[in-house]
Amino acid sequence: MEQTLRYISLLVLAFLAVSNIECTAQTASSNQRKINKAEIITGADQTEKYLSYLKGKRIGLVANQSSIIGKKSSVDSLVSLGINIAKVFGPEHGFRGNASNGAAVSSEVDAKTGIPIISLYGKNQKPTKEQLADIDLMVFDIQDVGCRYYTNINTLEYVMEACAENDKELLILDRPNPNGYVVDGPVMTDDRFKSAIGIHYTPMTHGMTIGEFAQYLNGEGYLEKQCKIKVIKVANYDHDMPYELPIHPSPNLNTQQAVMLFPSLCMFEGTAINEGRGTYLPFTILGAPALKGKYSYSYKPVSIPGMSERPNHKDSVCYGLDLRNYDIEKLRKSRQINLSWVIELYKAYPDKAHFFTPGRANQDISAFDLRIGTDQLRKQIIAGVAEAEIRQSWEPELQKFKAIRMKYLLYP
């Protein structure tokens, strides 16, 4: 009888242990689901982590229309919270984000707050010693899209350089990279291809946030003197997460589809193909008049103030590809820039000698090369090299960059 009771007791204990393990596993699974479903919170929205650090200081804020806290402009929000914004520094497209690509932007005074707005895309791209003289702390809060040829990372370097030279600290309010899942394209390694749309030795898409890229600039010797930085990290974020931007980062990236296609379509700016500039569908359509009869989709680029005043093929009907409904998940799953479109349109273009537009005078460097960061891809396309072989030629430098990038990541 005693042995029977002991046996029953062991069975009960075993049942309770298994039940406890299952309960713990269910709780862990539930907690994991909560973590996975947690809302992404930008650095700017975590005011509890930096507001006290700003109090009592004269702040220089690098910002544009994408700089928001909640749904309000970061400038307005911080001023209402008692922060002394001494100056605002605006990048390409201006503080309001309403200047066309490449257009010089003048400095001004903000009509709403009376705060001076210093343009970093006009007379100077780097803050001057005089402009920083009455600043105690610089704050960088701009949405980036993860491409070498998107000039916000150039502005970041110039601001870091100015801060380092003038012993100013830079606080970065980090934001997710909507293209953070892709590290792809040729790595620029030759200074001959440096330009206003490419000054870093990275692939076409670098897969880093602004905070991570700032660490990369410091760590890889881009600055003569390292900049003292402090990063307010994005909460609940990793590079594979889809992230829909709450505000358009620039006039011609006016939809989420355009933001996601931008890494693949911006290279067309160095060709005879219009990439949707001069329409309200930029970076979602492609075409040229010379492709009439080869594609049925058509559109007409026109001058649009604040977006594209002089688009390629202005006032001419273009024929080509409509990518507005292209499944972006295909790009996400491939983790690659789409190379097939530029190969396809080159093959379809009747005047191949004029497909790639000129770049620098007296040099065999096209406008396409300056975006790509090398002339190799242009030459491979002309020679009819297969896409797989082209991609394989990127791999040695791409793998080196990926190893370097790993050192500076703040997120999985």
UniProtKB/TrEMBL annotation:
PANTHER family, sorted: HYPOTHETICAL 460 KDA PROTEIN IN FEUA-SIGW INTERGENIC REGION [PRECURSOR] (PTHR42915), PEPTIDOGLYCAN BETA-N-ACETYLMURAMIDASE NAMZ (PTHR42915:SF1)
- What residues does the Peptidoglycan beta-N-acetylmuramidase NamZ C-terminal domain cover? 260-411
What protein name applies here?
A: DUF1343 domain-containing protein
**Has keyword Zinc?**
no
Task: List UniProt keywords, sorted A-Z.
Answer: Signal
Q: Does the keyword Signal apply?
A: yes
Question: Peptidoglycan beta-N-acetylmuramidase NamZ N-terminal domain: which residues?
Answer: 59-256
Residues annotated as signal peptide: 1-25
